[in-house]
Amino acid sequence: MSDEAARAGTHVVILPNETATVRLAQDIADILKTGDIVALSGHLGAGKSLLARAMLRRLAGDPALEAPSPTFTLVQSYDSPRGLLLHADLYR
Predict the structure, then answer these.
(1) CA angle 82, 35, 90 (to 5 degrees)
(2) What is the H or E stretch that residue 85 is in?
(3) Per-residue confidence in pLDDT tens, the chain, 92 aa
(4) What is the pTM of this model?
(5) Beta-carbon contacts of residue 92 (< 8 Å; ≥ 6 apart)
(6) What is d(CA 23, CA 4) in angstroms, rounded to the nearest whole number?
(7) What's the number of CA atoms in the CB half-sphere (13 Å) around residue 71?
(8) Is residue 58 within 8 Å of residue 49, measured between CB atoms?
(9) What gap in Å lies between CA 85 and CA 58, rounded to an integer?
């Protein structure tokens, strides 16, 4: 895949704070369909884990869901009312 093709569906979003990041994550989670993949890319500390955690919590219907970053396990899986959710850390 060319770099241009890879960027075709790419969006850069700059948010002012954690509250805005969580809100965006919830909005994204609300429109996801079975089989959708969300790929996050950004520098260390950019908020990828915060966004992913908020999406997982929304999709699982559990605001207190423990959702650690899968840095060491590579993939974390979660059962949810919407099906199996996978959170992968592909930084290798």
Answers:
(1) 105
(2) strand 83-88
(3) 455 645 667 788 889 999 999 999 999 999 999 999 998 888 888 899 899 999 999 999 999 998 877 766 788 889 888 888 988 887 75
(4) 0.80
(5) none
(6) 29
(7) 5
(8) no
(9) 11
